[in-house]
Structures are given as structure tokens and as C-alpha cells.
Amino acid sequence: MLLGISISGPAQNGFALPEKQKKDKIQFKLVNNLPVIPVEVNGTKLSFILDTGVKSTILFSLENADSLLLNNATPIQLHGLGEGGSVEALKSLGNEVKVGGAMDRNHALYIIFDKSLNFSPRMGIPIHGILGNDFFKNFIVKISYGNERLTFYKPENYVFKNCKKYEELDLIFEAGKPYIKLDVASQNTVSEVNLLVDSGSSDALWLFDPEGFITESPKNYFEDFLGLGLSGNIFGKRSQLQSVVFGEIKMPNINASFPNVEAIERAKKVKERDGSVGGGFLSRFTVVFDYKNKKMRLQKNRNFKKPFHYNMSGLTLEHDGVEYVRQEKETSRRGSRIADAETQSASVYNIQVNVEYEFNLVPRYIVVEVLEYSPAALAGIEKGDEVIGINGTPSHQFRLYELIEMFSVEEGKKITLEILREGIRLKKKFFLKNML
């Protein structure tokens, strides 16, 4: 990676489309409920998470970029969710950032060099940064989660057609971030909550106050790793609520996570914030963000009625680089007929097969967390094991998000893992089980 410093270019007030262009659209990749979009920074093509929960644009994991020029950089400290403190960063001004046909020629970037803050291993694909609300404020933005398409319009050229299929919610802005109000219900309580709209969180719902939702008898939760924040790892409880209601829409049996207090101290300082709503919720809709008029509109997509599930294996896997795998490749085959010594008939064949070996770089998957008393833990799988095969298929033939989905969709499904532990191949079998 080449990191340079230079003088900023001409000023411009945020992202803008060319004068005669009314809208643009790009395809994105939905990974763990997160939209990953192509972004060009000072001429370098990168991959960013589109994140309404972050105000500004953040760069990290730059080791995968061949070169990147940064303008007018000065050191600062950043704070965010997580159990650590602040992280060292650079603030860089005057950068040229491009999303589809939209460009900002005077964009501020925050660059984090802490290698522990790396989303790529948990996502299984390169993630170089986060594109926040700086992108949303100048457009009407439609995220079509069902067909993985992002469409953005100039506000003056966008006409919303009133339609009963859409449910409209008011956006409330605090510190440049959007919030909505929803009704959440458990067996014991119904509450109106003020939630950050966080498209950069893969979970459906986070709530900061467990009172009335978490019970010990009967126990309706399990402890788990919830995610990675700007200030470190986030742990907490995972549970399920009876429903979430807004307008005419009711979402039953929705997953909810309750992060530990240590991870959310800064977030709780936001006036009346009760939690956040994330990709597990948003991905069941086509979502239109209209920041100018402070509106968010949601239309159900084909995923709306799918039941909510957690990872039922107890395993957290991580993409841990690549390794070489030897594969056979048949290059030619030649056969000739020869006479049988006894019958003198030409019924015996001599076949010659030429085989070459090729070596391919493939992803390597490592177990980084095993939930206590989970099916994987009871089967004897340990942290640090390398997963080399799943149900008879080499693990490198799967994307990481495909494995996560496999562990989350079918209770009772038999999983056979072939693992490598200290150079020894082992087979472990278990059945997926709902932890709640």
C-alpha cells in the first residue's frame, strides 16, 4: 500500500450527480444483511458498507488497496461502540469520492490504522470502509434489499407516489443520524422506543434496557459476541421479542440483542436513545430514505415472512487468509482396443489418462468463538480449529456468509465438519439447535 499526502482540490458541497442526470443506480452485495457497495476514493476502487448509523466516511483495512492518496491529513481520536476506549485516526480533507455517477470532490475521510478493527475476516470479503450519512443527505436513496440494488435520485426530480404498499415513518435527527420510533412487545411489556436506523448493523434490533424483556425464569436469552464496534468488541445477550409494530405492519418473533453496558456508554448519552434497528430488520423491505423531508418509507419484500433465526451451531468462523490447494486436472484421455488373449476378440481396452496438478489459492476458515453449551461445543469443536470440510464439501467452495446462513436456517439439520487441529484431521458431527 502506498499512502501519500497532497493538497486538496476544489470545494463542492457534498455528493452530486452530473447536471443533466436525474438518478443513478448500482448493484451491491448483501453480506450478513449489510449492503456492500463499490466506492472510488481518489481513483482507487474499494468496497464500503453503506451505513446510516455513521455520520461520516471511515476508512480501514487499507492493506488490500494497491495505492491510495490521502489529502490534508491530521491526527485525531475517534470514539464508538465497544468495550475499549478511543482509537487513533487521521482526518483527511479535500478527497474525491465517487459512488456510481455521484461525486464529492471535497470529501472528509477518517482513516483508522488499528489492525484489530477489521471487518473483512468476519465478512469473508474485502471491506475497506464505511460510507455514512454524508451520502444520504443530498439524495433520495432507495435500498432494494431483495434485488440488491441501490438507486439514488436528485430530490427535485423524485416524485413519491402514495401507495398503500409503503409504510411511512418520521425520521428524527440527532447529531446528524436518523432515528425512528417503534412499538416493541414482549410477554410482559409493550414500549415505544427511539431507535437509531443503522444499516451497518447486521442484527435486527438492539435494545439498551433489558428490563421487561430479559427473564431468568424461564431463561429466554443466551450470552454471545454481538459484533465489532469502533471501540472494540461488543458482547451481550441475544433474545427474541413477541413483536415489533409500526403503522399497519407487525413483525412477530423478532430477534433482539441487548449489548453489555460497558459497550454502549457513549451511545446512551444520545438524548432518549433506546437502541438501534439494523439490517436484520431493514433487509425485509425496500427502504426509501428522504432526509430532506425527514421521512423513511418501507415496502415489504419477499423476505418479509421468513422466520428470524440465530446461528444455531454456536460457531463463529473467520476468514483467515488463503492457502494453496492441489487439484487434479485431466488434460487428455486416449483409448485403444486390444484383442483378448483367450477369445481373440477385440473387447479389451487400453486407456491412457494424462493428469496435471494445479495449485489454487482458496480461503481458509478458522473457528474464533465457540458458544458454551452449544451444539458445536458439545461436539468437541475448539477455538483455533481450521474448518476444511462441511457435509462432505471442501470448505473453500463456500463463501463465509454462505456458511453463516447454513448455520442459521434449519433447526435439526445435521452438520459434519472436517477440521484440522495441530496437523491432525478430525471429524465432528452435531445438529443445529435453537438456543432459545
Describe the sheet with the most strands: 8 strands, mixed
Task: Kindly state the number of beta strands.
Answer: 30
Strand content: over 45%
Q: What is the helix fraction of residues, given as a range?
A: under 10%
Helical region count? 4
Report what the structure shows.
It is a single chain. Helix content is 4%, strand content 51%. With 436 residues, it is mostly beta strands. Strand 8 and strand 9 (87-99) form a beta hairpin. The model is unreliable at 1-12 (pLDDT under 50).
Summarize the structure.
By secondary structure, the protein is mainly beta. The protein has four helices and 30 strands.
Throw out a few tags for this protein:
436 residues; mainly beta; six-stranded antiparallel β-sheet; 4 helices; globular; disordered N terminus
Helix-strand layout with pairing:
Blueprint: E1 3-6, E2 23-27, E3 29-31, E4 34-41, E5 44-50, E6 57-59, E7 68-71, E8 73-78, E9 87-99, E10 102-112, H1 120-123, E11 129-131, E12 140-144, E13 149-153, E14 166-170, E15 172-174, E16 177-185, E17 190-197, E18 205-207, E19 222-229, E20 232-246, E21 249-259, E22 275-277, H2 279-282, E23 285-290, E24 295-300, E25 315-338, E26 348-370, H3 375-378, E27 386-390, E28 393-394, H4 400-406, E29 414-421, E30 424-431
Parallel strand pairs: 1-7, 5-11, 6-10, 17-22
Antiparallel strand pairs: 2-13, 3-4, 4-5, 4-9, 6-11, 8-9, 9-10, 12-13, 12-23, 14-24, 15-16, 16-17, 16-20, 18-22, 19-20, 20-21, 23-24, 25-26, 26-27, 27-28, 27-29, 29-30
